[in-house]
Amino acid sequence: MRKVLIVFCLFLLVAGIAAAQSVNSTMYVAIRSVALKSGTGLFASTRGTLEYGDRVTVTQVSGNKVEVRSASNLALIGWTAVSNLTPRQVVAGTTSTATAREVALAGKGFNQEIEDSYRSQQNLNYADVDTMEEFIIDESVLFRFLEEGRLAMGE
Q1: What is the longest distance spanned by two Cα atoms in the chain?
Q2: CATH topology of domain 2-125
Q3: Cβ atoms 17, 82 nearer than 8 A
Q4: What is the pLDDT of residues 68-96, one digit of tens each?
Q5: How buried is residue 42: exposed, middle or buried, by Cβ count under 10 Å (0-12/13-18/19+)?
């Protein structure tokens, strides 16, 4: 079952990349929030932020990065990784009984069968993953860490 899940996730990733490869295509933010950058580099300045479910239009493609324009604020244009987007419309509402985790899985294209498969495995514990997702590291701290350690600065 694990192999099926991995293949399914890879399929979703390839489908998302293929959908985002076309300029003027409509995409939706598939993560909690994403900073739109002025360029494709790791330390490009931030132009603005989009939230989960926001609709965007692809304006340019460069490898695994896409430049997008916000549908709600046409002046907001910036670059992000294509993996932060999905071609499927996602809706984040407050009247839903779904948890934030369930909504995020649905936004990534997971269906009930996949979710049931996860839940049937009694020994899975995602607490550490959930904890790591809560960490927010300031870009200036990350930049200083890379610089002091003489590490590669990304693209």
Answers
A1: 49
A2: SH3 type barrels. (2.30.30)
A3: yes
A4: 999 999 999 999 999 899 888 876 555 55
A5: middle
Q: What's the token pair of residue 76? A: 């907001």
Axis crossing angle, helix 112-120 with helix 100-107, rounded to the nearest 10: 130
What does the pLDDT look like over 92-139, one tens digit per residue?
A: 555 555 566 666 666 555 666 776 777 787 777 777 777 887 888 888
Q: Which residues pair with 33 in a beta bridge?
A: 51
> pTM of the prediction?
0.60
CA angle, 123 as apex, 118 and 129 as ends, to 5°?
A: 70
Q: Domain limits of the chain? A: 2-125
How many helices (H) and strands (E) the chain has is answered by: 5, 7
99 vs 82: CA distance, rounded Å: 25
